[in-house]
Amino acid sequence: MTSDRFGGPGWEIHSGPVRAPFASLTTRPAMRWYLGAAFSLLWLVTVAPDVVTQSSGVLATVAGILLVIVFALAFLASAPLAWTLPRHLRLAPAGILLALSFTLFPWIGWGVRGIWTYVGVAIGMAVMPILVTWAALLGLGALAVLAGVLTEGWDENVFWIPAIIVSISAMMAAFARNLAAMNELRATRDRMAQLAVERERSRVARDIHDILGHSLTVITVKAELAGRLVDADPARARTEIGDVEQLARGALADVRSTVAGYRGVSVAGELVAARAALEAAGITPDLPGSIDAVAPAQRELAGWVVREGVTNVVRHAAASVCRVRLDAAEIAIDDDGMGPVVAAADTSGGNGLAGLRERVEAAGGVLSVGRSDLGGFRLRVRL
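Now predict its structure.
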């Protein structure tokens, strides 16, 4: 891809196929082009009398007028057609327009240079790289100078028509490039809106996974405990069932607030929930008594780490002890259970760890997993 930023309006900037500037002949920019171009064709009215006066008969007159009409229609289609073509063919419509102008040569001779302004406008509206555009316009201007010399001889008047051709065409080229820039900005805005929707969708999915993964794990553990206590200790079984109900209601409220975008996570609250979950699962919790070592800006992230780490211990570790350590530079969650089920180098983990990794990396941290000094699994996040 060329370094010229506006090699074509709406083109892909980094990779992928080159797209047409306005995609079709019926978009709003194309319709505006038709309106403006049709108005500019009033200039061709001055060519028609010359064609009539230079015709040798009725058939020649009709043929000449038809060629003027064909040239006008070709000009109308030139810019929208160029916008649908790949870059290396963008100047083809302007080349066809130049060739069509010579069909009027038998009637008006080198007077055809007077309608080359339309050719220049077609070049400018093709929105080619700036050097290519200027090379084509200056080449067209030089051809107009040569036509003037052949027609009128060498004097200062031969530069008037070429100057008009180049100046009007350059103005239209600048106009077209502004349209290209606006079209690119609109496309970028639309892409950013789509990315924002996708990010929000990912956030909601990740948060719901983390919330329900933790809450349903604790609910399952407490429900199993209540089932075992129904006969042995009915009073405690009722207490556990009450806890299950409260957890379910809390999970429902968390899901609703997450979807609404208002939910926050507190590391202090997650430590309290972690203790309850670990004790319900028969795992001895070894938790910090204070969160002062964690910077306030990092406490929400620390809460997510504790939530995911403890949920994995309860769900997968078959551990008897779970230890959580917090300080200003690191969060570590260790257990004495089964240990890593994948090689330590493979830290991709499941959906929960993948979502947690996204959070950590977005905050500038590094997540790693491996074997704990307790003999089980370690989840560590460096802040």
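The CA atoms of residues 14 and 68 lie 43 Å apart.
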